[in-house]
UniProtKB/TrEMBL annotation:
<dbReference type="InterPro" id="IPR005199">
    <property type="entry name" value="Glyco_hydro_79"/>
</dbReference>
<keyword id="KW-0458">Lysosome</keyword>
<protein>
    <submittedName>
        <fullName>Heparanase-like protein</fullName>
    </submittedName>
</protein>
<keyword id="KW-0472">Membrane</keyword>
<dbReference type="Pfam" id="PF03662">
    <property type="entry name" value="Glyco_hydro_79n"/>
</dbReference>
<keyword id="KW-0732">Signal</keyword>
<keyword id="KW-0325">Glycoprotein</keyword>
<dbReference type="GO" id="GO:0005576">
    <property type="term" value="C:extracellular region"/>
</dbReference>
<keyword id="KW-0964">Secreted</keyword>
<comment type="function">
    <text>Endoglycosidase which is a cell surface and extracellular matrix-degrading enzyme. Cleaves heparan sulfate proteoglycans (HSPGs) into heparan sulfate side chains and core proteoglycans.</text>
</comment>
<dbReference type="InterPro" id="IPR017853">
    <property type="entry name" value="GH"/>
</dbReference>
<dbReference type="GO" id="GO:0005765">
    <property type="term" value="C:lysosomal membrane"/>
</dbReference>
<comment type="similarity">
    <text>Belongs to the glycosyl hydrolase 79 family.</text>
</comment>
<dbReference type="GO" id="GO:0004566">
    <property type="term" value="F:beta-glucuronidase activity"/>
</dbReference>
<keyword id="KW-0378">Hydrolase</keyword>
<dbReference type="GO" id="GO:0009505">
    <property type="term" value="C:plant-type cell wall"/>
</dbReference>
<feature type="signal peptide">
    <location>
        <begin position="1"/>
        <end position="28"/>
    </location>
</feature>
């Protein structure tokens, strides 16, 4: 309540400031206009249409190994949760890196050399996260549903992802060693990051006659990771179930009725493990593309309090290999096409009368790792800022950009950790100013 009023005031002050600063000149370059026409912008700063989380800005870290390639380019380098930011070169060479990973890097000897130059105490990386104070980081991606955690009883054998064209997403099952999980958490604590962890939702599934995967989620390995995390005192803001398994799925799909039952199970294991602790994490799902029937069903079946956040993904520009990305990015009517997704989801939530809120859990614009010199360059800011504005108008509470680092759409350069242009964009977007921005109606 108080937060809402506060943010309304802040929103008012922000727009009031714009107003006091005089009419804002907007240069329109549409058909029929030549050069620059000054346009007056009137902002109604009194009526709130939506409120975002104070920490609206979020970015993702993914699992892709250096051998992940798209259209002949391998853009992930050492940006995976399994190999980014080793705490020291000694650690890189031994405990935190699996032997097979070292072998891969030796084959890519340039990378290997680089891994000795960079480490967790790399000030650029640490400060890049710190600067957002706090930055939400969502840890996940396609391979999250193929990773097991090196903990529990019996402890699984911990082996890395190995490239294998016959496997879903081109890699075998991988494993997160607990030594690596410790190291990541140490880094997140130092950087003040707020962590959302995407759990493997495919454990225990069988293929059903309609081609979807079914059978209940086997949560024993996930529960072991959550228990380990709580025992270590690591703060996790939210646990998200699965990646792109909703609707028609990417790689695999699971029915909404089964998924709802799995979310309810996740909620109960979290309740049990966090019993007596003051801070309870959020439960998020499904981290997939909006499918109205599927989303409507999971919302209704997880009511009233199993699912805190429904997460959806956005790749509205098509594949990274597309030669016309820049035209789409600079075409306002193309960009506006995505508003329908936000509107539909907002409608689903309001007509269900649920307390579940919406986040964009992953948005990279162009799928299959983006496109070098487009999704990592200045022009992509037209897409990114438009998305931040659009999402907040439709009451999206948090927006996670794919990626913080890695692929061709990182906010940071994968090899140097230096900011790409989009790194600076949230700072120029009013939602990041403070404390839950109120999106106001803007009349042109
Ligand atoms: C880690 O990186 C920092 C900055 O690049 C460097 O000063 C330090 O010596 C490195 N530490 C190790 C153990 O390599
Ligand atoms: C769930 O998976 C674990 C391994 O993580 C296995 O030991 C257990 O038997 C499985 N449970 C069921 C019900 O299949
Ligand atoms: C990232 O840095 C490398 C090395 O300086 C450079 O070759 C590459 O073009 C940079 N990427 C971007 C998107 O600027």
């Amino acid at each position: 309540m108080g937060g809402g009023v506060l943010s309304q005031l802040l929103g008012f002050f922000f727009w009031g400031f714009l107003w006091l600063a005089g009419p804002v000149a907007v240069y329109s370059g549409g058909p029929g206009t030549s050069g620059a026409d000054a346009v007056a912008v009137v902002v109604d700063g009194t009526a709130a249409i939506a409120v975002t989380d104070g920490d609206f800005v979020c970015a993702t870290l993914d699992w892709w190994p250096p051998e992940k390639c798209d259209y002949g380019t391998c853009s992930w380098g050492l940006a995976s949760l399994l190999n980014l930011v080793g705490s020291s070169s000694a650690c890189y060479a031994k405990s935190c890196m699996l032997q097979q990973e070292i072998d891969v890097l030796i084959r890519h000897s340039q990378c290997f050399l680089f891994s000795f130059m960079q480490n967790l105490s790399n000030p650029i990386l640490l400060n890049a996260v710190k600067a957002f104070s706090p930055l939400k980081l969502r840890l996940g991606g396609s391979l999250q549903d193929k990773i097991i955690y090196g903990t529990g009883d019996p402890k699984p054998q911990c082996t890395p992802f190995i490239k294998s064209t016959s496997e879903m997403f081109g890699f075998t099952q991988g494993c997160l060693p607990m030594s690596r999980w410790d190291e990541l958490n140490e880094f997140f604590q130092k950087a003040g990051a707020v962590i959302i962890f995407g759990l493997n939702a495919l454990n225990g599934r069988v293929t059903l006659s309609d081609g979807s995967l079914g059978g209940p989620w086997n949560y024993s390995n996930a529960a072991a990771l959550i228990r380990y995390t709580v025992n270590k005192g690591y703060a996790i803001h939210g646990w998200e179930l699965g990646n792109e398994l909703s609707g028609s799925g990417v790689g695999a799909r699971i029915g909404a009725d089964q998924y709802a039952a799995d979310v309810i199970n996740l909620r109960s294991i979290i309740n049990e493990i966090y019993q007596g602790l003051p801070d309870k994490p959020l439960v998020l799902a499904p981290g997939g593309f909006l499918d109205t029937n599927w989303f409507t069903e999971i919302i209704s079946r997880t009511k009233p309090n199993s699912l805190d956040v429904i997460t959806h993904h956005i790749y509205n520009l098509g594949p990274g290999v597309d030669q016309h990305l820049t035209e789409k990015i600079l075409d306002p009517s193309y960009l506006d096409g995505e508003a329908g997704t936000f509107r539909d989801l907002q409608r689903i939530l309001s007509s269900a009368g649920t307390s579940t809120i919406a986040w964009v859990g992953e948005a990279g614009g162009a799928y299959n790792s983006g496109h070098h010199l487009v999704t990592d360059s200045f022009v992509f800011s037209f897409w990114y800022l438009d998305q931040l504005g659009m999402a907040s108008t439709y009451d999206t509470k948090t927006y996670c950009r794919q990626s913080f680092i890695g692929g061709n759409y990182g906010l940071l350069n994968t090899t140097t950790f230096r900011p790409n242009p989009d790194y600076y964009r949230p700072a120029s977007h009013p939602t990041s100013f403070c404390c839950g921005f109120t999106a106001n109606s803007i009349v042109y």
